[in-house]
TrEMBL record:
Pfam families: Glucosamine_iso. SUPFAM superfamilies: NagB/RpiA/CoA transferase-like. InterPro entries: Glc/Gal-6P_isomerase, Glucosamine6P_isomerase, NagB/RpiA_transferase-like. This is Glucosamine-6-phosphate deaminase.
């Protein structure tokens, strides 16, 4: 692997470790290296691990790094993803399961991949997927932060830090839907589904090690609120400051200082 980028600036806010890099590529490369190192360390200690992946353009550089690391034994990894649109055709290019297969799973072939089936009846799918997640602890979560501060699809109106569910159906707020247009995933907001299945905030925070990748100036306000605002569901990502092992990777654009 290539030489790793240097951290431009680091700080810790509450329990959240924050690493600032010069640019998006440096950010994603550093995060990928840290995730890869944690995977190998955990696999040296136990027979298999369980990981949750976000599917978003913000994750591209991290996923690319993992794809290139030939020393990861993917056969011993069980993979989940954290959310999925409701109502899209099975072959829709915007489906998050397709995103992860195209950028990672098709090439590395994890031992087991558990996908959210949004074509299933929502209550039954929440029961089925929730049971899979509860079978054993989650070791690693790779996530991002939305422009409205959401983690997964836990937008401010539906976020619950004490949610009793593992996965639930939610209505997406307009800021979240607009972000999907801003990211180039849809041509217009009318094309973005109004509902999705998402892992809840307690389900995400149940992961032992969290790696949160947030590049670009469109995320600057969300990062500022995450680091400096009150811990509140008005900006769901603020709860990351309470996780015992979460690292936030940002660049100059998203850090904004």
């Amino acid at each position: 692997m290539n030489e790793l980028p240097n951290v431009f600036f680091s700080q810790t806010i509450d329990s959240l470790k924050v690493n600032v890099y010069d640019n998006r590529l440096a950010l994603g490369t550093a995060a990928g290296a840290d995730v890869a190192a944690r995977i190998k360390q955990l696999l040296s200690e136990k027979p298999g691990i369980r990981m949750i992946f976000a599917a978003a353009p913000s994750q591209n550089e991290l996923l690319a790094y993992l794809l290139e690391d030939q020393a990861i034994d993917w056969n011993r990894i069980t993979a989940f993803h954290m959310d999925e649109y409701n109502g899209l055709p099975v072959d829709a290019p915007q489906k998050f399961s397709r995103f992860l297969y195209e950028r990672l799973f098709n090439q590395v072939k994890p031992g087991t991949v558990h996908l959210i089936d949004s074509s299933n009846e929502s209550e039954e799918e929440c029961r089925r997927y929730g049971e899979l997640l509860r079978q054993a602890p989650i070791d690693i979560v790779c996530l991002g932060i939305g422009e409205n501060g959401h983690i997964a699809f836990n937008d401010p109106p539906v976020a619950d830090f004490n949610d009793p569910q593992v996965i639930k159906m939610v209505e997406l707020d307009n800021a979240c839907r607009q972000q999907q247009v801003n990211d180039g995933c849809f041509a217009a907001i009318k094309d973005v589904p109004t509902h999705a299945l998402t892992l809840t905030i307690p389900a995400l925070l149940s992961g032992t090690h969290l790696f949160c990748v947030v590049p670009g100036p469109t995320k600057q306000k969300a990062v500022e609120r995450t680091l400096n605002g009150p811990i509140s569901t008005e900006c769901p990502s603020t709860i990351l400051r309470k996780h015992p092992d979460c690292t936030l990777y940002v660049d100059r654009g998203s850090y904004g200082k």
